[in-house]
Amino acid sequence: MIAAPELHTEFNFSQETDPHFSSDTDFEDPDGRNQKPSKGKTIKKGKKVPGEKGKGGGLNRMNGHHQENGMENMMLFEVVKMGKSAMQSVVDDWIESYKHDRDMALLDLINFFIQCSGCKGVVSAEMFRHMQNSEIIRKMTEEFDEDSGDYPLTIAGPQWKKFKSSFCEFIGVLVRQCQYSIIYDEYMMDTVISLLTGLSDSQVRAFRHTSTLAAMKLMTALVNVALNLSINMDNTQRQYETERNKMIGKRANDKLELLLQKRKELQENQDEIENMMNAIFKGVFVHRYRDAIAEIRAICIEEIGVWMKMYSDAFLNDSYLKYVGWTMHDKQGEVRLKCLTALQGLYYNRELNAKLELFTSRFKDRIVSMTLDKEYDVAVQAIKLLTLVLHSSDEVLTSEDCENVYHLVYSAHRPVAVAAGEFLYKKLFSHRDPEEEGMPKRRGRQSPNANLVKTLVFFFLESELHEHAAYLVDSMWDCASELLKDWECMISLLLEEPLPGEEALTDRQETALIEIMLCTIRQASECHPPVGRGTGKRVLTAKEKKSQLDDRTRITELFAVSLPQLLSKYSVDAEKVTNLLQLPQYFDLEIYTTGRLEKHLDSLLRQIREIVAKHTDTDVLEACSKTCHALCNEEFTIFNRVDIARSQMLDELVDKFNQLLEDFLQEGEEPDEDDAYQVLSTLKRITAFHNAHDLSRWDLFNSNYKLLKTGIENGDMPEQIVIHALQCTHYVILWNLAKISEGSSTKDDMVKLRKQMRAFCQVCQHYLTNVNTTVKEQAFTILCDVLMIFSHQIVAGGREIMEPLVYNPDSSLQSDLLNFILDHVFIDQDDDSNSTDGQQDDEAGKIEALHKRRNLLAAYCKLIVYNVVEINTGADIFKQYMRYYNDYGDIIKETMSKTRQIDKIQCAKTLILSLQQLFNEMLSELGSNFDRSSSAFCGIKELARRFSLTFGLDQVKTRDAIAMLHKDGIEFAFKEPSPHGEGHTPVNLAFLDILSEFSSKLLRQDKKTVHVYLEKFMTFQMALRREDCWLPLISYRNSLQVGGDDDTMSVISGISSRGSVRSKKTKPATAKRKVAEAEESSSSDGMWMNREQTLQSPVMMQTPHLTSTVMREPKRLRPEESYMGVYPMQPEQQQQQQQQQHHHPQTPIDYNTQVTWMLAQRQQEEARQQQERAAMNYAKLRTNLQHAIRRGTGLMEDDEEPIVEDVMMSSEGRIEDLNEGMDFDTMDIDLPPSKNRRERTELKPDYFDPASIMEDSVLGVSMF
């Protein structure tokens, strides 16, 4: 066996080695196969040489460029990037050039890889001959364009998207075309592998990424060559064995000798290929599969999956599977996804299952846990992988493993749910008895699907994690639609008696089956997933539309006949009847006429009428109402038949109600419980039908109004009667309004409606004070709806005729509504005993109660947003923002946003009013001598900070509102003088500390205006006081100073609410501008000056993190600007400078001149101090900027990564290789030396650092 040459990482080419081409190459050169072309020799254009293709000229090589078919000189990189030429012809041309001058051809190939990395440098022939690998890579690194981190594999655009596929295709075609000769010449492949190995170790990301992709694709191509060699070896061995087993007389010794020689050559070639693959695997893969860049790790895992699938005999063993198993713990979802897709290709082939047993047992738990991955794409592929595992063997996954996947059919993410549904179907529904397959297809209860439908019902009942059958049906719709559409089987299971020996369905199972049946009918009719599973209704294809029409026709034909029977059988069961009554909504009503099914329609209407008479449950009655509404469609001929039946039923109900109500109200004594029940049940039926049907002709307002007035006067009306009477009256008003909106009414109707609406609002306002919480909630909800409907919005859209109906609530009604919110919404969870029906310990009850309170608050906030009630009433809502942030924070914040859009100034006044109310409440509890560090005061201050953040960054838009907010705050602070006399602080002075949270939102010029307004309320003594009790005034005045810190903020807020630093380049301000600002800030307080003078000089400041890597020429300043603003000069330096300026002999000066000179010196000193203060401010700004960068989360998230970076995610503290101690074999990479290359000193140790890129769960465990 001939050993392959060992690869090393230096370019050191011998000039004495001749290329050898075997006879089986695709490009034979019989005339010159043993002749070495001279260096730099070119082939003249027009003169063909042996091996050239007849269709065009050869390659004209000039300094690494080529000319093809008369095209302009282009490098190999440009040809591949354009993608216009067939890749095989490009490779063939390169092979031709290699045969004539292999060094120049390899130089082109090396430059191709360099340029594909985005490097502008070019490897010259001189560098190629004399420089080592590391020196060339170092030289190329210097040629990188540092202005951008993009390179061809990462640049966006259609051209560069195609480039990656062309790049990979070029490498594959190159190996394929060279597989019979050139790759065995111990030169070309050695050079390429050595180059790619060196580049893959570079700290430059572009080199590392591109070379890793190239090396992995090269490895894939070599694996394909090795597989072909293996097949040829097996065929040759089989021929040899066949020939040798022949009798001696018939045996052809020459043929045996040829076969033996051929097998030997194939074995040598296979050894060569194996050594190349080992070199790539150990030199590139084992280091790059744990690279710091996720894309590089993903490339490695994707390709190793290809190798194991393509050449399973060599690669599908634990030595290679362990890398995929370890990388399943990667922190990046992209890499985990590649692991799963690689494994799917292996598990799909059942013949490979035996080799995957050990891997499956070791990493099965990890795969199961990945079904809950935070990346949905990873979770989907994990479920699909488990489905393949289940398909290969039923014994691998335990029942616990399967249950972890089962519950995902209820996932809100549809792809996850669909994948889980397929897994569930494979596990529970794909197994059929062999006896059933040969028997003729039966229908109904005896069909093969009967048991599967029962299994589905059992699973639905046993899955206690969820109760929504619609999600289960949607999850299995794609894989089990045939089963789910077997409605005939479902009907027979519900109507027919069980067969002998068959167990009948229980009541609970029948309920579940009816619910599942309803969900399947809805899915087939609407063709879109349930709520929460889709982004909206998508456009159906022609095939889907046809399937939808066919399904609706089939549904109508089946259930038009069977639905009356089902309703008759389950008429007493409210839950079953409610679901069954929804079926007609999905019927094609025309089939009742075309199919001559009128008698079944009469039977259905009769059943509905009986159900209405039997039930008082609201859900059942509303289902009946909706069904009648669906059937009463004027477009179909059945309308008259249904309308007559509906009118007869409602006539009976209204007559019965009026009669019962008259008897109920005329009794002088306390109402009888039976009479009350009769009134309530009839009222429930009428209310349910009034929701969907216009019952105006029966004039129900007067009877309901009389009932409600009696309840107010007597106070003993049952709560359920009041609730339904309020609801029914509400429907009456809405239907009358709808009639007027359509223009089919008279002026008297409008006057009548106006009276009815106002009288009804007064009744509801009375019921807001009812003792029963449920009644108050109903009255409040209806009042909010009525006020919204009859607000000034009713005349919008050209409906000025309806202006008489506009109703503006008076102050008493607004006050009652606000008090209801404060008493019933802003309460602790444990206090809401009535809303939870005594089930405080029931978590579901608490959630339901919170949902109800959120709806009540949203209804009131809607009145504020649409200006139905005064905006300032929102102060009582806004002040609860912090306390009830978890429950109602989103609603209150949205209300603030909407009110600001309506009226910015009024919204600001409301916000400051809410803070004033909280401040007054705190004073009433703690007294005027409270501690400003108390939790109550800090809470108000934090609320003010939150309010400040809601104004956003655009100070111009909110200018007037912020100014008005400060005006109201200042007036409130000085509103009440101190009761102890003039020398003491005003009662509300501490409010200025809260008001200072809004100072940062003032513009520079507005700060001056607010400061002037503040001084109007201050006395001369106040400005001189420095005691602690006056600190709020001092702090607020300082926040309004223009020359100090710009936009000063509180200690709590820091600089967290500043704008993004990334978009603003921090530059030292010139001295001239700083001097001007210092002059403007001459009124700044002395304590701020003292604090600023203690800061470091800017010279000692650390360079900010946000700096450019490009060296810029320093800005040239004018002489008068100088650098004094940043680097103040020492007095000695100034004196020297003055001496230099006045080097001429000085003449005696008079007194006036001396005074002028002294004043000038004093002005210069003051200017110098002001410049120094400005420099201190700049230093302070830089310090704050650095802290903002260190503190801020996400500021640098979108920045590009630097080109040069650490190769590994952790370069120190590597743990020992997890391979150690394992008893499985790995491929040997002991490569013998080559005469063309120096020996490689050593291969990189196979260290593995999972702590850097893997999750903690993988650490500290044995792999197998």
Summary of the model, kept short:
It contains 50 helices and no strands.
Q: Helix and strand layout, with pairings?
A:
Layout: H1 76-82, H2 87-100, H3 102-116, H4 125-130, H5 133-142, H6 158-178, H7 188-200, H8 205-244, H9 253-288, H10 294-310, H11 312-315, H12 318-327, H13 333-347, H14 357-369, H15 376-392, H16 399-406, H17 414-429, H18 434-438, H19 449-462, H20 469-476, H21 481-484, H22 487-495, H23 507-526, H24 542-569, H25 574-580, H26 590-594, H27 598-614, H28 618-631, H29 639-666, H30 673-692, H31 701-714, H32 719-741, H33 747-767, H34 773-789, H35 811-824, H36 843-865, H37 875-878, H38 885-902, H39 904-926, H40 935-949, H41 959-973, H42 991-995, H43 1004-1017, H44 1020-1024, H45 1031-1039, H46 1071-1080, H47 1086-1093, H48 1131-1141, H49 1151-1191, H50 1250-1253
Helix pairs in contact: 2-3, 2-6, 3-7, 6-8, 7-8, 7-9, 8-9, 8-10, 10-12, 10-13, 13-15, 15-17, 17-20, 19-23, 20-23, 22-24, 23-24, 23-25, 24-27, 25-28, 27-28, 27-29, 28-30, 29-30, 30-32, 31-32, 31-33, 32-33, 32-34, 33-34, 34-36, 35-36, 36-38, 38-39, 39-40, 39-41, 41-43, 46-49
